[in-house]
Amino acid sequence: MGLSVNRIAAGFVAVMLMTQFASAAEIKVFSTIGVKAALGELIPKFESASGHKLTVTWSTGSLLAKRMQNGELADVLIAAPAEVAGLVASGKIAEGSPATLSRVMFAVGIKRGTPMPDISTVDAFKQALLAAKAITYTNPAAGGQSGVYFAKQLDRMGIAEQIKDKTKFPPAGGFAGALLISGEADLAIQSKPELLAVNGVEVVGPLPGDMAFTSTHTTALGTAANDPAAAKTFIDFLRTPDAQAVFRARGYDPV
């Protein structure tokens, strides 16, 4: 009797698994590297709980939005609000689907154990940049928010030309903090979670004074999503309290 029950239970589990995988979808995600620190932890949890498979393309939100404007398809996009809004206007993103995912502040990082620079004021930060052997931040040509914003701040401080020759850009989709660890740069400017994503990097603090800036990440559904219901499940998952707790732990300000 017990064996028979066990066989029935085993058969039931097998049927449930077959049903799960029969309905499992492959969800194509275009995501800014700005949320990689949190999604690296959340993606396996979502796949395990849902049975769906995520295929993620990481880059700057600007480049990913451009790819979608040029005809590439993605089920879910995670980018800046303005980039998402442009795709809603062109019919690439479903109207009404964009939702705020997280917020981050742009910050300054150093290799842990090295002297802490003074960035308490804009002028002190300017002197720290000029004194550095090399600095690193996202290449503004790639369209990343932090890179575009910080390049404008260098112009504003009047030191863009002085800093140009000692600027090291991380590879596309890479973290500026990695260049601190390799010794290629002394100061890194990127979002706080991106800096904390590299082991051995210490965040000095946010950009000083009126240079301080907070960026927003928005997630949205592609109008040509292969399985809109599955894609929406992923978007909803990212906004659950448990997922938002992961964002918080990784240095983001959750929604």
Structural description of this entry:
The protein is an alpha/beta fold and 255 residues long. It folds into two domains: 2-101 and 217-254, D-Maltodextrin-Binding Protein, domain 2 (3-Layer(aba) Sandwich); 104-214, Periplasmic binding protein-like II (D-Maltodextrin-Binding Protein, domain 2). Helices cover 44% and strands 22% of the residues. It is built from eleven helices and ten strands. The chain has helices at 2-23, 36-50, 61-69, 81-89, 122-131, 145-157, 160-164, 177-181, 192-196, 228-238, 241-249; strands spanning 26-32, 53-59, 76-79, 99-111, 135-137, 167-168, 187-191, 201-206, 214-221, 253-254. Helix 2 links the parallel strand 1 and strand 2. The longest helix has 22 residues, at 2-23. Residues 1-22 have low confidence and may be disordered.
Give a quick set of tags describing it.
single chain; 255 residues; alpha/beta; D-Maltodextrin-Binding Protein, domain 2; 10-stranded mixed sheet; 11 helices; 44% helix; 22% strand; elongated
